[in-house]
Amino acid sequence: MAHFEKAKSLHDWLNQRLAVDAVRRVMATEYWIPKNINFLWAMGMILAVTFGLLLVSGIFLLMYYQPNVATAFDSVNYTIMKEVEFGWLWRHIHGVAASVVFLIIYIHMFTGIYYGSYKKGREMIWISGMLLFVTFSAEAFSGYMLPWGQMSYWAGMVITNLFAGGSLHADGLVEWIRGDYVPAQAFLNRFFMLHVLLLPLAILALIGLHFAALRIPHVNNQDGEEIDFEAEAAKYKAGDKAGSKVIAFANDFMSKDMMVVGIYLVFFFYLVFYHYGFAMDPVNFDPADGLKTPAHIYPEWYFLWSYEILRPFPTDPGLIAFGFAQVIFFLLPFLDRSPNAVPASRRGLFNVWFWVMLVDMIVLTAMGKLPPEGIFSTIGLVAAITFIVLWILLPFITKKEKEL
Amino acid sequence: MKELKILAVVVFFTLVTYYLVEPFAHSQMHKHIESEGFAYEDLADVNLTDANVTNGQELVMGAGACLGCHSMEVAGMPAPMDPVTAAQSYGVNPPDLSNAGAVYDAKFLADLIKNPAHALMVEHKFDAEKGQMHPMVPFYGAGGDLDKEVADMVAYLQSVAVKKEELTSEQAYELACGRCHANHYAEWTQLGNKPAFKKEQEELKYKSDVLDYQDSLKAYMGKLPPDLSIYIRSRGAHYIETFVENPQNYLKGTAMPRVGVNEHAMEKVIEYLEDSGDAKRAEREEVGKNVMIYIIIFAIFAILWKKAIWRDLH
């Protein structure tokens, strides 16, 4: 056992046992961040705050929610909304955060793509981020089942049907997943467990991995400049804060993070109190009814683009395209063959690729919600094909890119 | 400045996406139906200026007239049968007429008295020529001028009903919706407000009565009309108002009758539905205001802190 001296203060006592000074140095005051990064780099902190809001509000909701097909709907819409003090507030925070978190994830992802933050040594940051995205998607979907409204039920029906694999007709697999022929009690219990235990646990672990993946390659910067972190940090520590290209995470970058978080929270709570409806599909305020199909079945907005890659094709090609869309983002660091980790605006054809991809995904999102009729199906089909073609083109256009 | 440009790009794409998946998609999925302003323009005007309330009272109370089926608590006339039996006879319990004059539009009432299937817009279901009589018997007149007599009856119903400002949301809901639609978040069944029970037997008896009533209703309407507990959230006020005003606009051939409420009673119905489905709206406004003030102050301090820290970094 190490040698311990009589502590001079509580801080000293803790320091001898937990090395709080060293931890603070590594995590905050000597965790170096490039200076030239804009507010888009604060999305990570916004995501952490939003996830915190989800976790806390979720815990309160969990105290009153009943995972039973007979009582789930009323436990959410009556007990939590009407009888529990501030239950409405926790629910609206949870519902709005669940939707907004995806907006921020998409901004975070497109920031990474735009600035090439997934390249050259940063592949693990990207891959762990994509794993987080997929886990968040599963978390969102399983949570959407819990109020047991009409859209919960029918979205559950449609999404689990995908596992039949089209002409493979793996109906046994679908029944195994549901625990029944249709979404019912076993299904609700499973999704409840996934939503409140297994998936949040996985998310917490992946957040740890995502943060750890940042430590060695450091975060990218606005100009794609390769920074000698040790030399710059020495400059900073010598007192030349203005001349150094790096700053400390705390309080330097954290103050910027907090500024962005502050502005974000104004927007967030505006939504919670005055515009929560956008995050709650009205159809889901009708109790689940297995005998009555809603006129339109669509997922939440953040899944619409991948839903629209499935929908315009016949069953089997649709499923293949859908599977393609789910995994292709993982491969981005390997499909982008260019050596440049600079903003897309300086990368010629890739710049075009980026903006076309962004617009294409918005078009897919819009068409995924609209009824698949007439011109909307045609636009949806073209957008889905464009999405696939863009990914096939990516290695070729980036291979030709000149080194900057 | 550069960061503001980036922010503008982010906001622009966010708003475009929002517009497409919310207002635009909804406009494509659900046709918009304008309110007709509760004018009931297809119905004939009723002239109440010289209406004779006393004559109206005699006609309403007269043998074989309204009170053969309807109760009128305000005039001391209880219902001839209990709601369950009434529903077995007519399909639905005929409403108590005490406040009919306050809830229903005058034009609608007049038309209803003369030709129920027409006023209720259920002629597709009840065609007298094919022998499908509406359970409510039309008033054929007491020998005088039919229109004058009907106007007298409407004037009488209006004279005994609660004053406009005294109409409660529950009274409006009961007459407009509550005999067919339950609202279990407001403890409302088709038989009225669910009482508090001392003994389980009483509660089971009540439940059994409700089920019997619902059976008659199912046979009459084709299906059990939905529970309206949180219709204010699943449908919204505009949908409900315009649906009540003219159900045929939404569901051609639906068994749901036109209710014929006046505009004020409709507001009361919406208030009732908000109380059951969005009970905490006042608290939300109040808390929302305070949280917004707090969070704006927080944001201002965060901005000032950032400025202070970054002064040394530039």
TrEMBL record, chain A:
It is a multi-pass membrane protein. Keywords: Electron transport, Heme, Iron, Membrane, Metal-binding, Respiratory chain, Transmembrane, Transmembrane helix, Transport. It is found in: Membrane. GO terms for molecular function: electron transfer activity; metal ion binding; oxidoreductase activity. It holds the Pfam family Cytochrome_B. Residues 10-223 form the Cytochrome b/b6 N-terminal region profile domain. It comes from the Bacteria. GO terms for cellular component: membrane. The chain crosses the membrane at residues 39-65, 96-117, 124-146, 191-214, 258-277, 318-336, 348-368, 374-397. Its main location: membrane. This is Cytochrome bc complex cytochrome b subunit. It comes from Sulfurimonas marina.
From TrEMBL, chain B:
InterPro entries: Cyt_c-like_dom, Cyt_c-like_dom_sf, Ubol_Cyt_c_Rdtase_Cyt_c_su_prd. Coiled coil: none annotated. Keywords: Heme, Iron, Membrane, Metal-binding, Transmembrane, Transmembrane helix. GO terms for molecular function: electron transfer activity; heme binding; metal ion binding. Gene3D superfamilies: Cytochrome c-like domain. The chain crosses the membrane at residues 6-25, 291-310. The keyword Membrane applies. Residues 51-161 form the Cytochrome c domain. The keyword ATP-binding does not apply. SUPFAM superfamilies: Cytochrome c. This is C-type cytochrome. It comes from Sulfurimonas marina.
